[in-house]
Amino acid sequence: MTRPEGGTKRVSVKLFTKALFAKTGIALTTTGMLGLVLAPVALSAQTVAVPTAENPFGLPADITLFGKTDPDRRTATAIVNGYVITGTDIDQRVALVTAASEAPIPEDELLRLRVQVLRNLIDETLKIQKAAADEIAAPRDEIERTFQQLVAQNFGGDTAKMDAYLASIGSSSASLKRQIEGEVAWENILRRNITPFVNVSAEEVNEFLKRMNEARGTDEYRVGEIYLTATTENRATVLANAQAIMQQLQQGGSFVAYARQYSEASSAVVGGDLGWVRLGQLPPEIGAVTRTMQTGQLKGPIEVPGGFSIIYLINKRQVLMADPTEALLSLKQVSITFPAGVTQAQAEARVAEFGNFMKTVRGCGDVDAGAAKIGAQVVSNDQIKAATLPEQLRNILLNLQVGQSTPPFGGIQEGVRVLMLCGRDDPKDAGAPTFATVMSQIEEERVNKRAQRLLRDLRNDAYIEYN
Questions:
Q1: Which candidate, 330, 345, 332, 350, places its Cα nearest to that of 415?
Q2: How many helices (H) and strands (E) does the chain have?
Q3: How far, in Å, are 188, 261, 337, 441 from residue 383 at the CA level?
Q4: Nearest CA among 246, 267, 202 for reference residue 8
Q5: Of 24, 202, 272, 290, which is least packed with CB atoms within 10 Å of its CB?
Q6: What is the pLDDT of residue 179?
Q7: Bond prior to 71 in cis (omega within 30° of 0)
Q8: Overall number of domains in the chain
Q9: Among residues 327, 325, 400, which one has the least CA distance to residue 364?
Q10: Cα separations (Å) of 153 from 102, 162, 181?
Q11: Cβ atoms of 466 and 77 closer than 8 Å
Q12: Is residue 451 part of a domain?
């Protein structure tokens, strides 16, 4: 699994999904300039220390600090080869991330997010400058076209609504277009300077296909990852950041949005999605954890060589076998409701009666007549794809035989129901990927590795001034 920081895939109109534009009511705090200003303070007595071998500077044990010393709270601006990144630029980009969170974000988490966003903006600026120097800058009409696709996807083509929403969360269309410009510019750079020089032989592709056929029936996993690099010096800080991100995700934060802004792997541009992988393709530390995970589960932070990872298991299937979540199910929903003012005891008695009735049902043909006797309602649907069902119910239904039903679920407010499996059409076994698909996948991995080196070189050669 590669972790190139600069790799990317073709720019997609899925830069921001509906989740990213869900209103959350989070009020953004605009961080002002935090210069070294000495405010009047009451001077406290300091112990005078004499320089010694252990304390060569003669530093007192109780010192009085002037101004703010938190490195995360310094002025969040930078000048990148003459291009100014302002605090407003950072505020507006942070707003795009926080708008996707379903839970309030603590102030210290916002500070960490600002630091990461600043780094992203610096890389974005370097990409745009490189494309301009190579005379392959992102065309304005392409940027506008992608922006309008997002407008159509999220606001029915009403640009005024998009602008109003972005303004309401503390961002702007200019900030979003700048991000689009950076991704288009980088795609142009890779297409001209790297992709033409990457070669994959037919022997490599055939060997890959051979290994896949040998692995038929083994498990493979669709994994999302947020990867943070760490060194011996900053390990504790990076671990704290990863733990804070994990906490936000567990409280409902968007994994895709956090991966795009925080992850330092090449998969960040697609929301951390690594695609379908086998355990042997993952670092051993991640593979061992992934093996024990259930679909939809988060794990982390996991320490791996070079940093920490947060893993999200999107889906699971078997190599070259049918994906069970693609099965079409024929279901009957049997439900009961409760009148207003029902007591807990009455509700429990009604649920017990309902449960006893379902135990007597011998198949889908018996449901309708029997349900009418106990005042239950029956709704049928014979074209439900398993993948569209809630995960917990999906896992139960896929393990049922025709004529069996799920345990009762629900509550007094929404009613109690069961789902009965009346039929199932399994998809055909998945065939091996085509020769062209495998070749494209290997090429992309190599392009991403070279992209990592190119972006590292751009950083090393850049003149960046922090204020």
A1: 350
A2: 13, 11
A3: 43, 38, 25, 34
A4: 267
A5: 202
A6: 92
A7: no
A8: 2
A9: 400
A10: 21, 11, 19
A11: yes
A12: no
- Tell me: pLDDT of 402 over 60: yes
Q: Final residue of a domain: which of 166, 196, 226?
A: 196
Look at residue 234 and give its three-state secondary structure: coil
Task: Supply the CATH number for residue 178's domain.
Answer: 1.10.4030.10
Containing 380, the helix (H) or strand (E) segment is strand 377-385
**129 φψ region: left (φ > 0), alpha (ψ -120 to 50), beta (else):** alpha
pLDDT digits (tens, 9 = 90+) for 259-272: 888 888 878 878 89
Residue 466 near residue 356, CB atoms below 8 Å? no
**Beta carbons within 8 Å of 133's beta carbon, 6+ residues apart:** none
Alpha-carbon span 10 to 267, nearest angstrom: 12
Confidence of residue 430 (pLDDT cuts 50, 70, 90): low
What tokens were used for 416?
């109690």
CATH of the domain at 329: 3.10.50.40
Give the phi and the psi of residue 429 in degrees, each rounded to 5. Answer: -55, 140
Report whether 71 contacts 461 (CB < 8 A). Answer: no
Q: 162 in a domain, yes or no?
A: yes
* Placement of tokens 């509700």 in the chain: 347
Strands 83-85 and 78-80: antiparallel
Residues 6+ apart with CB under 8 A from 17: 256
Q: Give me the domain span that covers residue 413.
A: 324-425
Separation of alpha carbons 169 and 30, rounded Å: 12
Residue 418 lies in a domain: yes
Q: What is the pTM (predicted TM-score) of this model?
A: 0.56
Show the tokens assigned to 438. 């495998």
Q: Does residue 389 lie within any of the structural domains?
A: yes
